[in-house]
Amino acid sequence: MNGEFIEACHKTFDPERLFINAPMRFHTTFCIGGPADLLFYPASIDEVRKIIQTAKLYDQPITLLGNGSNILVRDGGIRGLVIRFNHTMGKIVADGTIITVGAGALLKEVASFAQQQGLSGMEFASGIPGSVGGAIFMNAGAYEGEMKYIVTHVRTVSSDGEIHSYSSSELEFGYRHSVFHEREEAICEVRIHLRMGEPSEILRKMNDLNSQRKSKQPLEYPSAGSTFKRPPGYFAGTLIDQAGLKGFTVGGAQVSRKHAGFIVNIGGATATDVQRLITTVQERVYASRSVPLIPELRIIGEP
Length: 303
Fold this sequence. Notes:
Number of helices: 7
Low-confidence stretches: none
Largest sheet: 5 strands, antiparallel
Helix content: 25-40%
Order of helices and strands: HEEHEEEEEHEHEEEEEEHEHEEEHE
Shape: globular
Number of domains: 3
Structural class: alpha+beta
Distance between the termini: 17 Å
Strand order of the largest sheet: 6-7-13-11-12
Mean pLDDT: 96
CATH architecture of the largest domain: 2-Layer Sandwich
Number of strands: 19
């Protein structure tokens, strides 16, 4: 790690929000991952802009991270700078039916805030364990809801430290996809348009969806959510179950016994365990049904 870069960061930013050799297992829902050279929690769009410019000045690679819920960090960790968005950039403000949200806010927090304001449209997201920024990046969705249906504007910081604004028509939302898969930009602020509703009915729907999630998904173990994208015409979990892989284990990684679409960390799993298990699942399913499974989770970092 570049010592001059670390020194420059400590001079410019709050040292209490800078962490050297930060174990990424504490920053992902999979509880897996080697150390990041330097991890930083920004508190404003201006700080995001400044630290990106500083990293560029010292030729340091940048990795952007929200709640770490759709991520597998390899065992060698992440070189350079990790910008992690959390509550320090998680402000939520309502203006009528419009909610403006910092990228670090958790989806469940925004859904709860909306319910208390009598705003409907975020119910689907109340059980998704991700941040708003990550949800935009992946166009997160569940139970027939998706971010693309409620997002109107997004503010970002580009790789050269410039602030940009996108309207919904420019976001190129698709299945687990947004324009930011092709653009190196930090999602910083999101504007969401909801509709008026009855708070008690909104809460009832949220509770119902979360009960369904709890009954069907292996929430008792760390995971990165659904491991594979849904193949056209199929369900990944069904294909994996039919291949006889439910409960199949490599090291501390296991195909969930509750829902075969999830790979879970049953204790001490490494990223290598998970990657080997993913490969085995892909090979077995393709051999039995000739259907390719494409991982939904992002795999980042050094081997």
